Structures are given as structure tokens and as C-alpha cells.
């Protein structure tokens, strides 16, 4: 699926990339252009919303956390302007709660960074009734546990005491888990 001839982008290959990591944005833009997309980039929520309003693209890849706000605001604007757009939300802070929020708001798929151009293209072009291929590197049991704790923590509005109570866990134990990086 790497070359442009093999991709069926439809009549409108416009793609919006929104990310505040300039180096990543440039690399991904170049890779997506090689695959046949007509790429436009933005480094902020405001820039992404402006492009979505002026020239709504057929495809979009939006980072969840941007310096000036939440990438889901860009997803909402694009979904309002172009309901059939295929949107992938990218983030370095992968948690189940944010994935659910992204899909509920209108994202087609949700990928954790680092995601390469092939992963992004597969997510953008996947058919709704088509099951994605099984992951090459599935989450470990420790990661699944961490994701569950993060989800409950977010649902409790980041209240450590309430999260600990709901998980039947000692508060100090939960604080130690939350202070650590996510397991692989």
C-alpha cells in the first residue's frame, strides 16, 4: 500500500495534517504526498479550524494535544463542514478514554504515536465494515491495566481519592502508579 498507484483516494485526495511537532508534521506531510494525497498542514487548533472552515478536506490527521488546545475541536469543525470526511486522531498520550471521546466526536480511527505513514494511510482508507489487521505489537497486560486505571482516573475528573475508591485500591498505591510512565 506504500505507492500512490495502489491507493484509491477517491476523487478528492485533500488531506489536512494538524500537529504542533513541526519535524513530525513535515515528515508525515512528505510521506503522504508521496502516497498521492494533496496535503495542507497546520500547527495549531486555530490553524486547523480555519482550514476546515475555508477548504474542508476529505481526509484529516489531527494530534489530540496541541499547544493552543484540544485537537478534538478541529475534528468537530471538520465533521460539521464535511460529514463524510475520514479523520484519524493521533496522540502521544494514548488512553482508552480519549480514544472513546475521539470516536464519539466523529473520528474514524485513533492511533498512538509513534505511528508511521503506512499506519495512518491504513486507518484513513479502512472501510467501516472491515476489521483492521491484528496488531503487530499488542498491548501487554501491564499496559492494559494502566490504560484501565487512566480511564477511570479521567472519568473521575482526575480525582485521585475517588479513583482509588472506585478501583478498590489504596490511594498511595494509585499515586505511585499515576506518577510512572505508561508501560510498553
UniProtKB/TrEMBL annotation:
It comes from the Bacteria. The keyword Transcription applies. Residues 14-128 form the Response regulatory domain. The modification 4-aspartylphosphate is found at residue 63. SMART domains: REC. Pfam families: Response_reg. GO terms for molecular function: DNA binding. PROSITE patterns: RESPONSE_REGULATORY. GO terms for biological process: phosphorelay signal transduction system. Keywords: Activator, DNA-binding, Phosphoprotein, Transcription, Transcription regulation, Two-component regulatory system. Member of the two-component regulatory system RegB/RegA. Involved in transactivating anaerobic expression of the photosynthetic apparatus. It is a transcriptional regulator that is responsible for activating expression of the puf, puh, and puc operons in response to a decrease in oxygen tension. This is Photosynthetic apparatus regulatory protein RegA.
Amino acid at each position: 500500500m506504500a505507492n500512490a498507484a495502489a491507493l484509491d483516494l477517491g476523487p478528492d485526495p485533500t488531506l489536512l495534517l494538524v500537529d504542533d511537532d513541526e519535524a513530525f508534521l513535515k515528515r508525515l506531510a512528505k510521506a503522504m504526498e508521496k502516497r498521492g494525497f494533496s496535503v495542507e498542514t497546520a500547527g495549531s487548533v486555530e490553524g486547523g479550524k480555519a482550514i476546515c472552515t475555508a477548504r474542508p478536506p476529505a481526509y484529516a490527521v489531527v494530534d489530540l494535544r496541541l499547544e493552543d488546545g484540544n485537537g478534538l475541536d478541529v475534528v468537530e469543525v471538520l465533521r460539521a463542514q464535511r460529514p463524510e470526511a475520514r479523520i484519524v486522531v493521533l496522540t502521544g498520550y494514548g488512553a482508552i478514554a480519549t480514544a472513546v471521546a475521539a470516536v464519539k466526536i466523529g473520528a474514524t480511527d485513533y492511533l498512538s504515536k509513534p505511528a508511521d505513514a503506512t499506519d495512518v494511510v491504513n486507518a484513513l482508507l479502512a472501510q467501516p465494515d472491515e476489521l483492521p489487521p491484528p496488531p503487530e505489537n499488542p498491548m501487554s497486560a501491564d499496559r492494559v491495566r494502566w490504560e484501565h486505571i487512566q480511564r477511570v482516573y479521567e472519568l473521575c475528573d482526575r480525582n485521585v481519592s475517588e479513583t482509588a475508591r472506585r478501583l478498590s485500591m489504596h490511594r498511595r498505591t494509585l499515586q505511585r502508579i499515576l506518577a510512572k510512565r505508561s508501560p510498553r
